[in-house]
Specification:
Outer membrane lipoprotein wza fold like; alpha+beta; elongated; 16 helices; single chain; 5 domains
């Protein structure tokens, strides 16, 4: 509405009120103080509008990044919100006041107005209705200047459970971030980074060793002060940006993040999705929900040819062929242990290539023709070998089919069953190259060094050609006095390197010592005068029974020392 003062007597009355308040400005400014350690202004009686307006802002809320502008129709006011009040008409003035702990808005010379729990829009109407009659022919508007802080609590499977200060425009994900995040694989890998550097450890072994807890990514509950509960699905929000799965916070909220259970129901998806794998199952999950959790469909999928297999007591109960372009297929309700296969289109384009790593002039990914392209041709495409290439050590690795993978342990058990338990799996854990790839036999480097074309292998899709650089060191690990990396000395044999490392330690098991030559992938049993070449690894395992004897000796020494001390104490009585 157009604001004009048509009644001079009303305008003079307004001016008189402000003139009466001027003398108390200085006193009021001295009375402003912070409470709660965050600089929240405290206003004593007699404080003028101008003094209140000039009060410093709280640093915690002075600059806030909002995901969207505050919606007056949905923002709920509460204790600590800083409100701006503008009176327009006659003498224009702008004042500020914080909502009190009781939810009241208090302005000198005006009645107290309760606005706590109202939306910003409703509070604006209430201000006009209650105070508008005090200032005829004027318009009163309110706006939100600073957003309040309140305490919320997070507990359960979280890195740092506790109480945190947040605002009404923050969501659950912000609380989780402030609390250090969830207990997931990334967190534990960072936490146990030093132990994971050891050849005997991986995240699965540490999980069993320390009973490491993990957070559920889909199960959390937000408890409201009014007794209501809201489900929270952090993974759904992360993958879909679904705000319903990540609600806004309110005063006094309590978030509990569930721990992940190995026995919890799950569903699995494979094929043409961005992130195939197993996912926690929630009641009422639909096939389309699972696809979105898995990062969505890839461009070359056959959406009309999706297979869903349902299991019952470890046997196939039913199999469904679904068309997810239709609502009945995309909304198909999932049950625990369902397995979904998103088929790719037949005849789709696929890159057939090998990767060249290391000391080629232009390492990278290069195309091959199955059964025709040779190692020599690929090295030519990669610009030839660099001056630093260790030709003898050139290796070609071929990725194993997943169904043909044999565990490293099984391989060692078959090759050396007698020593398997006695050396406590010490050999195989150090030979990581058995994990996913098979090394092609022969000496591929001979084609470049000696021109032996019979050793020029044909390459296949997915092969990796590795060209190492010149190696001028030998690695000693295990039970020597000073294990580590030693400079290669031409003509040195095994005993020379053992002597350089200070000799064997007390618990070395010399009979099971092995050497892993740089250019091959199998351990070899050496003799004292075995010639060691650049890049070779020498491994001296531990004798478990001797280790127990040393521990027993240490234990016996501690016990005898303790007995001596007790005897001395008794003798002094």
């Amino acid at each position: 509405m157009t604001v004009r003062v048509v009644n001079m007597r009303n305008a003079l009355a307004i001016a008189g009120i402000f003139l009466m308040l001027i003398p108390v400005v200085t006193k009021a400014q001295r009375a402003v103080s912070g409470i709660g350690g965050v600089g929240t202004p405290q206003v004593t009686s007699g404080t003028s509008f101008e003094a209140f307006r000039q009060t410093p802002r709280t640093p915690l809320t002075e600059e806030q990044a909002l995901e969207t502008p505050v919606d007056p129709e949905t923002y709920i006011l509460g204790s600590g919100d800083l409100i701006g009040i503008s009176i327009m008409g006659g003498i224009d003035q702008v004042f500020e006041a914080r909502v009190s702990p009781e939810g009241n808005l208090m302005i000198p010379m005006l009645p107290i107005l309760h606005i706590g729990g109202m939306t910003l829009a409703t509070a604006a109407d209430s201000v006009n209705n209650q105070w508008g009659n005090r200032f005829p022919e004027t318009t009163i508007k309110i706006s939100l200047i600073e957003i309040r802080l309140f305490r919320v609590t997070v507990a359960g499977a979280i890195v740092q459970p506790g109480t945190y200060f947040l605002t009404p425009v923050d969501r659950v994900s912000m609380l989780v971030e402030m609390a250090g995040g969830i207990l997931n694989d990334v967190y534990w890998r960072d936490y146990y980074a030093p132990e994971l550097q050891k050849p005997f450890e991986d995240i699965e072994s540490l999980k069993k060793k320390y009973k490491i807890p993990f957070s559920s990514e889909r199960f959390a509950t937000l408890y409201r002060q009014d007794g209501s509960e809201l489900p929270v699905d952090l993974l759904r929000f992360e993958r879909e940006a679904d705000e319903e799965a990540n609600p806004l916070l309110k005063d006094g909220d309590r978030l509990v993040v569930a721990f992940k259970s190995e026995n919890a129901p799950f569903v699995a998806i494979s094929g043409g999705v961005a992130i195939p794998g197993r996912y926690e199952w929630k009641n009422n999950d639909r096939l389309n929900d699972l696809i979105r959790l898995a990062g969505g469909l890839l461009p070359d999928v056959d959406s009309s040819n999706v297979q869903l297999t349902r299991f019952s007591e470890n046997t196939i109960a039913e199999s469904f062929e679904l068309d997810i372009t239709e609502e009945s297929g995309s909304n198909f309700e999932l049950q625990p242990a369902d397995l979904v296969l998103i088929r790719r289109k037949a005849g789709r384009q696929r890159m057939i290539s090998v990767e060249v790593r290391g000391e080629a002039n232009f390492p990278g990914v290069y195309p091959v023709i199955e059964g025709k392209t040779t190692l020599n041709e690929i090295i030519d495409q990669a610009g030839g070998l660099s001056n630093h290439a260790f030709i003898k050590g050139i290796q070609v690795w071929r990725q194993r089919e997943s169904e043909n993978l044999i565990s490293v342990g099984d391989r060692l058990k078959k090759s050396d069953p007698m020593s398997w338990e006695t050396i406590d799996r010490q050999f195989y854990r150090l030979n990581y190259r058995w994990q996913e790839y098979d090394r092609l036999g022969g000496e591929p480097g001979a084609i470049f060094k000696e021109g032996r074309k019979s050793l020029n292998p044909l390459l296949h899709d997915g092969d990796v050609v590795f060209v190492p650089n010149h190696v001028e060191s030998v690695i000693l690990i295990g039970q020597v006095i000073n294990p580590g990396v030693y400079p290669y000395k031409e003509g040195w044999v095994l005993k020379d390197y053992i002597n350089a490392a200070g000799g064997y330690s007390k618990n070395a098991r010399k009979g099971l010592m092995r050497v892993l030559p740089y250019e091959v992938s199998s351990w070899q049993k050496p003799g004292r005068y075995t010639v060691i070449n650049p890049g070779d690894m020498i491994f001296i395992p531990e004798a478990p029974h001797l280790m127990r004897w040393i521990m027993f000796q240490d234990y016996l020494m501690v016990v005898s020392q303790a007995a001596t001390v007790i005897a001395v104490i008794v003798s002094l009585r």
